[in-house]
Design a protein that fits this description.
With 392 residues, this protein is an alpha+beta fold. It folds into 3 domains: 81 residues, conserved putative lor/sdh protein from methanococcus maripaludis s2 fold (Beta Barrel), CATH 2.40.420; 86 residues, Beta Barrel (Elongation Factor Tu (Ef-tu), domain 3), CATH 2.40.30.170; 129 residues. 33% of the residues lie in helices and 33% in strands. The longest helix is centred in the first third of the chain and has 37 residues.
């Protein structure tokens, strides 16, 4: 029994003494797998970079920024002129005393009233003149009576001269008396007509149809030939704007040019037409006046200030969108795509600005490839990939 026990114990010791090869084998396998994965990743990265470099080398324009360019050419555009000035009556009529004057009894109109030619604006007291006219009318009646008597005596004398009762000399004297009486009638009538004309001139009348602008007289006021202007009128209600323009703007402006007048305090534009261009230039301001005729409107008040846009003809010039223009301390400029598709700066002079775009008055001839937008992200000398857009 002791032997078996020893043998069993001996077998147990031998089993415990055997080496364990399982753990080291697993670690080596894991290390090998990790190394293989790292090498695979490095190879993939290298292959990707090599392919990218090859693609870039094969397509040198693939990395260039694309920009939209436009060739503006030269288009027919309206030449517009901006100006400021004052509103006034196109033909202003000052109305004063035409006769002897006197005390104003009634004023029949107010500013803003439309009147006809010859319409009475104010009346003057004529009590004395009325009595004078009545006296002269009576003188006419007396003269006519004298003429009638002289004519009757002449007729009787003609009947008696054939019988020998009256000589031909007496007949001639009676004919002269009749002629003198007839002349006195005409003198009396002329004097009466003069008095009535003077009385008619006592009333203040409109010289022509139009609009009353101002009133400078009140009932009870004594007026005379030296009283000055009592009313101001606009003939026919016609208005105008007297626009102040520089010598350069006046040079190409002609009568008949279309214009739009905008009074201060409103955005409403009123169509008009240049009817007169000043033939002289003010030596102090170096400006002249363009007179723009406009139809009457209550908003067009003489003496007010207004702005005008005048279409002074048609010119040919490049037209660009607003997005193509840039500016800095050196002035306005655009970017153009020059030889080799390289960006270049071009200084320009801006002309008319309208809804259609910006007219380029100088700096471009219209054949250039102009960067339409995104110029702020470009720099002179930079190479780009231009995409041409048809000019509108």
């Amino acid at each position: 029994m002791n032997y078996e026990t020893k043998m069993v114990g001996s077998d147990s010791d031998e089993q415990l003494a055997l080496p364990d090869y399982s753990a080291p084998s697993h670690r080596r396998r894991n290390i090998i797998i990790a190394v293989i994965l790292v090498l695979a990743i490095v190879a993939a990265v290298y292959a990707f970079k090599s392919g990218k470099k090859d693609a870039a080398a094969a397509s040198p324009n693939a990395q260039l920024p694309s920009v939209t360019v436009v060739v503006p050419g030269r288009q027919m555009v309206d030449r517009t002129i901006s100006a400021t000035g004052t509103l006034a009556a196109r033909r202003e009529m000052p109305v004063g005393v035409a006769g002897e004057g006197g005390m104003i009894t009634r004023v029949l109109v107010e500013p803003g009233t439309w009147v006809a030619a010859g319409q009475v604006l104010a009346t003057v007291d004529r009590s004395v003149q009325t009595e004078t006219a009545a006296s002269l009318a009576a003188s006419v009646t007396v003269a006519r009576s004298d003429e009638t008597i002289a004519q009757a005596e002449l007729d009787r004398a003609k009947q008696l001269v054939d019988r020998g009762f009256i000589s031909k000399a007496d007949l001639q004297r009676k004919a002269a008396t009749r002629d003198a009486a007839a002349a006195r009638v005409k003198v009396a009538q002329a004097t009466l007509g003069e008095a009535r004309a003077r009385n008619g001139r006592l009333d203040i009348r409109a010289p022509a149809a139009g609009l009353v602008l101002t009133r400078g007289v009140e009932p009870g006021q004594i007026v005379g030939p030296s009283a000055g202007v009592l009313f101001r009128m606009a003939m026919g209600g016609q208005m105008e704007m007297r626009a102040q323009l520089s010598e350069a703007d006046l040079a190409g402006l002609r009568a008949g040019a279309r214009a739009t007048v905008v009074p201060v305090g409103t955005t409403q534009g009123y169509p008009g037409e240049v009817w007169q261009v000043s033939p002289v230039i003010d030596p102090q301001t170096r400006q002249g006046i363009a007179r723009i005729a406009v139809k009457y409107d209550p908003a067009l008040r003489p003496g007010g200030f207004a702005a005008a846009t005048i279409v002074g003809g048609v010119t040919q010039a490049p037209l660009l969108p607003d997005s193509a223009l840039q500016s800095d301390e050196k002035g306005n400029y655009v970017y153009i795509v020059g030889p080799g598709d390289k960006i270049a700066r071009r200084n320009v002079t801006i002309g008319q600005v309208s809804d259609a775009g910006v007219t380029i008055a100088g700096g471009l001839d219209g054949s250039e490839r102009v960067v339409q937008s995104a110029g702020g992200f470009l720099a002179p000398g930079q190479t780009v990939k231009p995409i041409t857009k048809k000019a509108s």
